[in-house]
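User: quick one, sequence for these tokens?
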């Protein structure tokens, strides 16, 4: 059994209430929710007729794309740093 305390936080994303359960701090959970909300609103403003489920999928695709780019950059910088240490 884990000793890690879980936080239960209610957040608002795109007009819907969600209860998020996680080990991160409440402020971190709220921050993540606010980023998701902002991205959904950004995509919705460019595609006003988009259904909510499609909007959610496009938001997820955007988030994963950003994650992959950042991960690749981290890997590149890690390799560069290792080369400098040699």
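Assistant:
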């Amino acid at each position: 059994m884990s000793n890690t305390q879980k936080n239960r936080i209610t957040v608002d994303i795109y007009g819907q209430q969600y209860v998020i359960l996680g080990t991160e701090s409440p402020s971190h959970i709220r921050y993540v929710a606010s980023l998701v909300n902002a991205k959904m609103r950004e995509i919705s403003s460019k595609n006003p007729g988009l259904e909510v489920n499609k909007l959610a999928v496009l938001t997820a695709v955007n988030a994963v794309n950003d994650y992959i780019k950042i991960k690749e950059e981290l890997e590149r910088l890690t390799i560069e740093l290792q080369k400098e240490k040699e």
